[in-house]
Each structure stands twice: as C-alpha cells, then as structure tokens.
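Researcher: Quick sanity check before group meeting.
Model: Go ahead. Protein one:
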Amino acid sequence: MPTVPFSDLSKHSKRVAETVERVHRVHIKRRDGEDLFISTARHDRQREETTEVAARMVAALLADDEGIRAVLHALPVVFPWVRHLNDDEKQQFVRDLVDATHDAIDLDVHATLHRVVVEWRATARILADPALTEQLTRALPDEDHGEVFAP
C-alpha cells in the first residue's frame, strides 16, 4: 500500500486519486495528527462485507459447545500467547470474543474486539513473566488510598 505525505495531497491530488483507483487504498502520513487512509468506496464496502462475514462465521461457531471447542482448539494458532492462560482464562477470553464479535456485527463497533484482544494479550504477557506476575498479584497492604477513578 503506498504512503503519501499529507502535505503532498493538494499538490498531487490527481496523482493520489489515480493511485487510489489503481491500488484501492492509500496511507496518508501526517506529522500533526493521526495518519489517514483513503480508499475507494467499493473497496471499503468489500472490506466491511468481509469483516461482517468473518465475524458472523465466528459468532456462528461460538453458538454451541462443539463450535466453542473448535475455537478453543484454534486459539493457539490464531493467538499463540494463549498458552500462558489457564483453562478458565481461555474460556473467559472466548466469551469476551463472542460478546465483542456481536458488537462488531450488531452495532458496527469494532473497537471492542480490538480492546478484548489487546487486554488479553497484556494479561498473557504478565502471566508469561513469573516475577511480574508475583509483583502484580501479591496482596496489597490494608491501607485505603481512596477512590480509584476510571481512566
């Protein structure tokens, strides 16, 4: 996928448009903000449909015990870091994937699925390091440090 500096957009808009037509998606690099992607509407619709099909397939697999077993069997291939999770944690990860997959399908909210994967990968990273696991799971002193606010 080609990358174009944001400052080149106005100078080379015709060339950028031709590139998007040819490769369907262009990465726009920005210095003062989040990078952008420009794509053709057709390509974006195809990506959305592909995502929805994949999400519906996963949701259908997770609809019964046999499908859940198949997904649990596939987890180490898709997410190699799950080897650091115990069986209960793997089951919870699958339940979280189910909920997040339904959010992606029903609500068009994809950030939840991304967050579930990021959070469980972070948990596995902690569990993979015995010293860090010990540090983060030891009992806290009985002191009350006040209310904890959501980030």
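Researcher: Fine. The other one?
Model: Protein two, sequence then structure:
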Amino acid sequence: MATSTAKRRVKNNPRAVTAVLSVLGYVLVLGTFAGVLPIYPELERATVDLLSHAIAVVNTLALTTIVLGVRWIRRGEVRKHRTAMLAAFTLILLFLVLYLTKLGGGGEKHIAASGAVYYAYIVMLAIHIVLSAVSVPVVVHAVVLGLTHTPSELRDTAHARVGRIAVAAWGLSLALGIVTYVLLNHVYGVEQYVMSLAPLVVGRR
C-alpha cells in the first residue's frame, strides 16, 4: 500500500521528483569537484588508468543501448525500447560511481598534446562536460515518466519530447567522452600508459 502511494505521488509530481533527484546529483558531483566529500580513497596511477578504461567501456555500452533504444521505439517495439533505456540509465549511474571515485581519489590526467590537437581536445572535453550537466534533468525526467506511466499514458505526457532532447544531449556527451578518452589514453598518452603498467608487469614475474 505504501509503495503504491509513493509511486502515485511520483507519478503525479514528476517535475518535483526530477528537480530533487537532479539537485542531489549536482550536489554530489560539485562536492566531489570541490573536494569537500572526504569519502574517496586515494588512488594510485595504475588504478586511475584502470578506472579510465572501465569508464570508457561503460560509456560505449551506454551509447550502444541508447542507439538500440531509439531504433526500437521507431519500430514501435516499446518493451525493447524501455529495457534498452533503463539499461542505459543504469550504466550511466555506474559511470557516475566510477567517475566520482576516480575524481575524488585524485585521478586527474592531462593530455600530452599541443597546438590544434590540444585545443580541439579541450573544446570536445568542455562540450562533453556541459552536455553531461545539462542532460541530467532531462534524462531523469524521461526516466521518471517512463517508470511511472504505462505506454498509453505516456502519449499524454512530455516523455517523447523530453526523451528526444535527452538522447541528443546524452548521446553526444557519451560520444565525445569516448573520443577524448581515446585521445588522452591511447593516442597522446601511450608512453605514460605503458609506464603505468610497468609495475604491474614486473610484479607478476
């Protein structure tokens, strides 16, 4: 009974729920950036690299599920669309845990490039960060509506419109995140990456 009442309240107040969840997310991220949340362990370089690779995998999977979700809803396969988007949202939550752990543990890295490549990287990174922040409320709102309404009820909500905005912002942010990861870790950070793996290789011998 209590669960049913809570779900009805969320269903009747999706914007308020979206606002509360978004604010909580922003507080967590900004608190980590500011270093006022002493809940993260200090990380070694090898761990930072490992988290970077894990984040890239999670982002790639999330982008894939988003593309599949869009494809399925265009075909009218609502159930598959719902499963894909919930999987993508779960992956983004996993990304958030990994990213905040990396950031809070001092896992900051700098690209070993200069000139046009460096500035292109900075622009892509900035767009990625801005879109990540902007997409939070629209993604949360789309998910809240999707979880509290039936497919027929969703036709009378802003789910489709908000969902299109969420997919555009979220998808581009993920794509740019993957590109900047490749540039930072596998194109212009290869030597640093190999050096960070050296202790692991030596330790196994």
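Researcher: One line on it for the slide.
Model: The domain at 10-204 is CATH 1.20.120 (Four Helix Bundle (Hemerythrin (Met), subunit A)).
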